[in-house]
Amino acid sequence: MTDFILAIDQGTTSSRAIVFDGDMKVVAVGQKEFTQHYPASGWVEHDPEEIWSSVVTTVRQALRKAKLKAADIAAIGITNQRETVVVWEKETGKPIHNAIVWQDRRTAAMCQKLKKKGLEPKFAKRTGLILDPYFSGTKLAWLLDNVKDARRRAADGELLAGTIDSFLIWRLTGGKNHVTDATNASRTLVYNIARNEWDKDLLKILDIPATMLPEVKDCADDFGTTEEKLFGAAIPILGVAGDQQAATIGQACFERGMIKSTYGTACFAVLNTGEELIRSKNRLLSTIAYRLDGKTTYALEGSIFVAGAAVQWLRDGIKVIGKASDSGDLAAKADETQDVYLVPAFVGLGAPHWDPDARGAMFGLTRNTGPAEFARAALESVAFQTRDLLDAMWKDCKGMQGNTVLRVDGGMVASDWAMQRLADILDAPVDRPQILETTALGAAWLAGSKAGVWPDARAFAKKWALDCRFEPAMDGKQRTRRIKGWKDAVRRTLSST
Ligand SMILES: Nc1ncnc2c1ncn2[C@@H]1O[C@H](COP(=O)(O)OP(=O)(O)O)[C@@H](O)[C@H]1O
Ligand SMILES: O=P(O)(O)OC[C@H](O)CO
To answer: Which residues make up the binding site for ADP (predicted)?
Structure first.
């Protein structure tokens, strides 16, 4: 039997298809960017048809590059941008509106209204999330409220809803399967993560008919089979997970207390809390890390909206670097005696502050401050924000801290300077793995293990291989002083001060 696995990684800015061989090595990659639509300030949409065609194109590309046929692929694993929601017609598979993307803030007022009614504790208790426009539930309610006839049609069973994985599976299986997995469901604001079911009360509050929602499966499960006409042979879809959960799996963070942090445009840190559903007292999210063989493993998650985006700002905004990879060299030239801070609240602040109205600020500027100090402040801001997340995690999980090691991935971890500074500020080692395609690998592992052609979790974890460990080297006094300066800068940036 063949042991090639195909991972579909449907991200926020591009779709990718990656073929892995039986040794879990990347054989070929297909990638296609697609259009971002910004119909109003704070609104972000994707055209589901463009997403769909980008996925089909990249799968064909990857198979061609790998010189493989669809019949050579044992199984498909899907991972996706989370929270982004699509509503489509059951009969035709046609979306009734563009997908509303996770970054979209149009339901801020709706969330505020629900908060005013005192409903946040109810949503938090059942879903592990907070009332923020980030999540799918209020976006779905918006679609039902604002697309002509949508509510009636949904009530009549004419419309289906789902996150991107669900929409793709519907299309891939030729409209046979309306399914999702527990990790994607856990980001919708209408899924009870303790009971592992759609929450009827919350659906009622948002006026969403349960009948339009997909069946929720384990992450390694039978999600259906692709239509033969798409790729030339039917391929079983055997793995699904939201992209940050897939990265947690790809980093083999299978044990309670293990953390991965992904540094792309934004940053998402996920702490495996095992079978225990820990409810954060520090504004982190409780979420499902994965559900395998009916057993749910939970996580605490912290999201930072600006990580690599701060490097993009150095390059495209203030133009002090020509390319992202110049940022570390420039930061290394900074004068260490200058306490310059950037609080990159370009789109508000995420966890643990959740302040949508805060805006970016710099502190400590003098006549001597130049591009190097700006570069250092941008890269350091990512380290300080990670420290804030980890501090919140350890407050929530007393006793779990142990010997923290952070496993990192994402485009920004290419910067040795940034990773060293991260270890310095965290006062903990930072491990960069050899395989940086952790998200796709996680999805591929779910499918490959379910197909029985890839190793089980224990053996997979043993294959995780280190590229470089960054050990903390900063003097303790300097660290304390810098962290104090950062906290002061954040305090002065928050919108309520
Ligand atoms: N050598 C580098 N040093 C610092 N930042 C980098 C470097 N290379 C890439 N980046 C940053 O990483 C981000 C891209 O990472 P990626 O994981 O591809 O992001 P995404 O999946 O969010 O598009 C960009 O914001 C870029 O500025
Ligand atoms: O597609 P990415 O990598 O930007 O990830 C988006 C996250 O899943 C949003 O929660």
So the answer is: 12, 16, 265, 308, 411
